[in-house]
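Appendix B. Chain record.
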Amino acid sequence: MKLFSTLIFLTLVVTQCQPQDYGVLDYYMTLPDLLEENSGISISQNKTHIYAINDSGGTATVFSINIKHQEITQDITITNAQNIDWEDLASDGNNLFIGDFGNNENKRKDQTIYWIENIDQTKPGSFSAFAKKTTFIFEDQKKYPPKKGNQNFDVEAFIVFKSHFYLFTRNRSSHKKFDGTTKVYKVPVKEGPQTAILIDEFKTCPDRDDCQVTSAAIHPETGKIALLSYNKVWILEGYKEDRFFSGSVTKIKLKHSSQKESVTFKDANTLFISEEASSKKQGNLYTLDLKKI
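Structure tokens predicted for this chain:
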């Protein structure tokens, strides 16, 4: 009996010590508890920290994670904002943009992008800020919500490029109608009401569970774009003007499925990717080395 108990103990120890399989991703850190519903990340201009937000139901707060020390060192509350469904972050130089455009049921008429100017100049600690904002509606949406086979007006991903926001939809169409199409809309970086103009679309893949676009990022020097889903990344390069799918599109299977909703470029060949917490564990922050793929 004693020998049997010892064998059980040793089996448990060996099992617990086994390295976890993260597919092609490399584990970087476990996200702080304050970011259990992390839905967007963006690296700072000086590359020393990552800005992060939570999605619907969270406070209207941007958190800053020191990359070296792997801890939250700053939080900024937006005094004139509400977190209806914050879904992604983007940056343009020293300005941070917050996408409050989550629209699971495709019936919102108040999608908003908030701006925080000169964010990298703020010091560690707790602050409040008043944000500029852009609101928009889709030029081709006529019903709120549309029929189930045409529910492709949810946005969880955007980038800033040449003084415009580019929005990538998360296709919510019914299983029978789902074909992986993400639509691309263009909105000027201007305050006040705007119209999102449809400029392109792309079919990611036909699996509704794994082919919905949940975040986007652009590298400011190379123009390389990353689109994220729960277990894939698409890299867009060599495109013309803002026709992002006109160049090469490389699909990368991450070989690791979780609720990944955030991506940003660490450098030209490395991505930071984060996930929401699950019922069993807090979410992680990973890196993806594009040169090894």
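Further analysis of this model is presented in Appendix C.
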